[in-house]
């Protein structure tokens, strides 16, 4: 069995910290809390779970704060969470099993980070992150905003999910830090450019975001997954500006860096569907259903595009083409992923009537 130090940085988290720590308190061997300047009862909440509470003077640098927290870790592995993260019950079971059975030859353990949830609480978007690292390797956090761990050596890709529930009131924080750094004349790394563009996109500053994404993509440096992410976000900016041809160009651009992925195929398929080019739309949505996500990929996993969405869209395409059997078939597959989805239930009833009228049988 391996031992785990949980290392967290927090500020004004009295409403969320207890929920987070309750979900992991029996799974880790020590809890280290670094407070970056709370004005509420965060420390009092933390003290109910640990006496290892330290202060860090905040200087708009998340990596510095995380590195400070990791220096107090004394167990075999160091793990990180944010205060608005939790482990759901099934993931607690998986973490317990991991702790009991992990081969200590692994330097790092990845877990899926569920960064957003759908309307019914189902996972909407995931990204795989390095979540636990061997303490003796003294890996360092990099980048002041959207920080990441720089790791090397053997990696274990676990099935554990960390669920991010979020907290209101942080919408402008990261953009403010980036713009402050720009005003100070700081030179942005390739990764900084990408995440600065992401913040601009989130704030609907699409024209400026497009400029920064293009600057990032034109640079020969940068990680493959970051390039693919930039293509997707660039496409989204063009979509928001109703520049649909440029949206598709950005989606196709992602194929430079890796084989087609379901989210880009769905985006291209949707353009053809809007244009009522049904055979072309079917081609791209069908391709999306045939692809498999690679577990060791550290890119963003858009759950809908890799599961139910292309089947729902194929249901619509085949309906328009008059092939009600295939339309029904794909709606059934979509329903298997979302059995309570009212659109799909309505489709099922409509298609059953169509099948009786057309073929004399319900399916």
UniProtKB/TrEMBL annotation:
Superkingdom per UniProt: Bacteria
Domain Glycosyltransferase 2-like residues, every copy: 5-101
InterPro entries for this protein: Glyco_trans_2-like, Nucleotide-diphossugar_trans, TPR-like_helical_dom_sf
SUPFAM superfamilies, A to Z: Nucleotide-diphospho-sugar transferases, TPR-like
UniProt feature coiled coil, ranges: none
CDD domains according to UniProt: Beta4Glucosyltransferase
UniProt-recorded name of the protein: Glycosyltransferase involved in cell wall biosynthesis
């Amino acid at each position: 069995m391996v031992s785990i130090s949980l290392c967290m940085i927090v500020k004004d988290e009295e409403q969320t910290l207890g929920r987070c720590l309750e979900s992991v308190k029996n799974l880790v061997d020590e809890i280290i809390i670094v407070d970056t300047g709370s004005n509420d009862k965060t420390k009092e909440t933390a003290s109910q779970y640990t006496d290892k509470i330290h202060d860090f003077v905040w200087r708009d640098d998340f990596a510095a704060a995380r590195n400070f927290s990791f220096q107090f870790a004394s167990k075999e592995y160091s793990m990180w969470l944010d205060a608005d993260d939790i482990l759901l019950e099934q993931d607690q079971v998986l973490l317990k099993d991991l702790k009991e059975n992990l081969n200590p030859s692994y330097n790092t353990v990845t877990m899926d980070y569920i960064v957003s949830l759908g309307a019914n609480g189902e996972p909407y978007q995931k990204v795989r992150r390095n979540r636990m690292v061997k303490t003796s390797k003294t890996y360092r956090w990099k980048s002041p905003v959207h920080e990441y761990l720089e790791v090397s050596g053997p990696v274990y890709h676990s099935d554990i999910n960390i669920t991010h529930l979020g907290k209101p009131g942080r919408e402008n924080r990261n953009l403010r830090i980036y713009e402050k750094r720009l005003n100070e004349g700081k030179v942005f790394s390739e990764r900084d450019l990408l995440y600065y563009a992401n913040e601009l996109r989130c704030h609907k500053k699409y024209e400026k975001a497009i400029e920064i994404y293009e600057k990032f993509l034109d640079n020969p440096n940068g990680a493959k997954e970051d390039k693919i992410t930039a293509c997707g976000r660039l496409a989204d900016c063009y979509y928001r500006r109703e520049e649909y041809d440029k949206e598709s160009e950005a989606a196709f651009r992602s194929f430079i860096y890796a084989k087609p992925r379901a989210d880009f195929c769905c985006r291209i398929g949707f353009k053809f569907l809007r244009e009522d080019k049904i055979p072309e739309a079917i081609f791209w949505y069908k391709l999306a259903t045939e692809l498999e996500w690679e577990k060791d990929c550290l890119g963003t996993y858009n759950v809908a595009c890799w599961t139910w969405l292309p089947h729902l869209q194929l249901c619509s395409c085949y309906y328009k083409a008059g092939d009600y059997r295939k339309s029904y078939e794909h709606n059934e597959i979509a329903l298997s992923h979302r059995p309570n989805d009212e659109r799909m239930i309505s489709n099922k009833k409509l298609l059953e009537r169509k099948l009786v009228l057309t073929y004399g049988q319900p399916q």
